């Protein structure tokens, strides 16, 4: 089992444990804010399952129907997570609205808050693992899952503070008010997850700092060439696609030009892991004198 799959399975296990703890905390207190926290954890479980499926699909090799691979499955999963995060926020706002209409005192609050706090600590540890390992493994699905959990951790901290404030002041309306604030935070989190994934589906270019490394590698390792132009990049999950036109002296043999391209491709794979490189070789009269100058 790959590291990505192990982490995805771990997310499902952690999600069920946290969901159980938060549902227990809600039953112990009757707090609508804690119920909102539990509803978000229910979404966590669903998105963790979606991430597992997406990672399995994305790991499939290219085939006749998908010659560029299945990398974008992870981006689709991240968008689904964003949709479900927003759905959770709407459900929480609904519960908060009903609680505003008829606020009620909380039952057995301290023990319930301790249970909820334990769930929050577990979530915090796991989201740190997911974001750190997801970035290392270049997995959008794992990073999105980790960021979703991070929003859950922040929400849980806000819920605990709000419920404690409601207990101390006796203002029962603070409980649904905190649930509404949690929902707004979750909405913002869902929007960020979706916007990042949509850019990948629309073949957005790699960040400028990565593009600088790509240009430097081509310039450094393209000794003997005239220039490189029409550089284009896009990312899809863990894969990065790089293509450009490589202008070489007309006197070069096919073997010599091919060897030069292999050298450049190897350099690019060192600076951009999991990249797929396409190089179109052209004779020197095709030079545009506006691309990458080769050292």
UniProtKB/TrEMBL annotation:
<dbReference type="GO" id="GO:0006882">
    <property type="term" value="P:intracellular zinc ion homeostasis"/>
</dbReference>
<dbReference type="InterPro" id="IPR002524">
    <property type="entry name" value="Cation_efflux"/>
</dbReference>
<dbReference type="GO" id="GO:0015086">
    <property type="term" value="F:cadmium ion transmembrane transporter activity"/>
</dbReference>
<dbReference type="Pfam" id="PF01545">
    <property type="entry name" value="Cation_efflux"/>
</dbReference>
<feature type="domain" description="Cation efflux protein cytoplasmic">
    <location>
        <begin position="207"/>
        <end position="284"/>
    </location>
</feature>
<feature type="transmembrane region" description="Helical">
    <location>
        <begin position="38"/>
        <end position="55"/>
    </location>
</feature>
<dbReference type="GO" id="GO:0015093">
    <property type="term" value="F:ferrous iron transmembrane transporter activity"/>
</dbReference>
<keyword id="KW-1133">Transmembrane helix</keyword>
<dbReference type="InterPro" id="IPR050291">
    <property type="entry name" value="CDF_Transporter"/>
</dbReference>
<feature type="transmembrane region" description="Helical">
    <location>
        <begin position="75"/>
        <end position="93"/>
    </location>
</feature>
<keyword id="KW-0812">Transmembrane</keyword>
<keyword id="KW-0472">Membrane</keyword>
<dbReference type="Pfam" id="PF16916">
    <property type="entry name" value="ZT_dimer"/>
</dbReference>
<comment type="similarity">
    <text>Belongs to the cation diffusion facilitator (CDF) transporter (TC 2.A.4) family.</text>
</comment>
<dbReference type="InterPro" id="IPR036837">
    <property type="entry name" value="Cation_efflux_CTD_sf"/>
</dbReference>
<keyword id="KW-0813">Transport</keyword>
<protein>
    <recommendedName>
        <fullName>Protein p34</fullName>
    </recommendedName>
</protein>
<feature type="transmembrane region" description="Helical">
    <location>
        <begin position="149"/>
        <end position="167"/>
    </location>
</feature>
<dbReference type="InterPro" id="IPR058533">
    <property type="entry name" value="Cation_efflux_TM"/>
</dbReference>
<feature type="transmembrane region" description="Helical">
    <location>
        <begin position="113"/>
        <end position="131"/>
    </location>
</feature>
<dbReference type="InterPro" id="IPR027470">
    <property type="entry name" value="Cation_efflux_CTD"/>
</dbReference>
<feature type="domain" description="Cation efflux protein transmembrane">
    <location>
        <begin position="11"/>
        <end position="202"/>
    </location>
</feature>
<feature type="transmembrane region" description="Helical">
    <location>
        <begin position="7"/>
        <end position="26"/>
    </location>
</feature>
<dbReference type="GO" id="GO:0015341">
    <property type="term" value="F:zinc efflux antiporter activity"/>
</dbReference>
<dbReference type="GO" id="GO:0005886">
    <property type="term" value="C:plasma membrane"/>
</dbReference>
<keyword id="KW-1003">Cell membrane</keyword>
<dbReference type="InterPro" id="IPR027469">
    <property type="entry name" value="Cation_efflux_TMD_sf"/>
</dbReference>
């Amino acid at each position: 089992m790959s590291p990505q799959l192990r982490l995805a399975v771990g997310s499902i296990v952690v999600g069920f444990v946290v969901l159980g703890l938060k549902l227990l905390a809600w039953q112990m207190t009757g707090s609508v804010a804690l119920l909102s926290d539990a509803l978000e954890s229910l979404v966590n479980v669903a998105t963790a399952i979606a991430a597992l499926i997406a990672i399995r699909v994305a790991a499939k090799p290219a085939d006749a129907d998908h010659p560029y691979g299945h990398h974008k499955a992870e981006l689709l999963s991240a968008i689904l997570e964003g949709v479900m995060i927003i759905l959770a926020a709407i459900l929480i706002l609904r519960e908060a609205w009903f609680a505003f209409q008829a606020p009620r005192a909380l039952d057995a609050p301290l023990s319930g808050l301790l249970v909820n706090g334990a769930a929050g600590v577990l979530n915090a540890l796991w989201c740190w693992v997911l974001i750190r390992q997801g970035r290392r493994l270049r997995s959008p699905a794992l990073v999105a899952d980790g960021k979703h959990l991070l929003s859950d951790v922040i929400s849980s901290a806000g819920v605990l503070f709000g419920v404690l404030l409601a207990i101390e002041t006796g203002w029962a309306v603070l409980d649904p008010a905190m649930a509404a604030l949690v929902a707004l935070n979750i909405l913002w989190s869902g929007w960020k997850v979706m916007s990042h994934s949509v850019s990948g589906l629309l073949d957005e270019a790699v960040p400028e700092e990565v593009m600088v490394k790509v240009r430097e590698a081509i310039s450094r390792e393209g000794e003997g060439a005239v220039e490189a132009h029409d550089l284009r990049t896009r990312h899809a999950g863990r894969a990065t696609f790089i293509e450009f036109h490589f202008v070489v002296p007309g006197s070069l043999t096919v073997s010599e030009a091919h060897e030069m391209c292999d050298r450049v491709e190897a350099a690019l794979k060192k600076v951009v892991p999991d990249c797929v490189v396409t190089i179109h070789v052209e004779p020197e009269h095709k030079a545009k004198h506006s691309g990458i100058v080769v050292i």
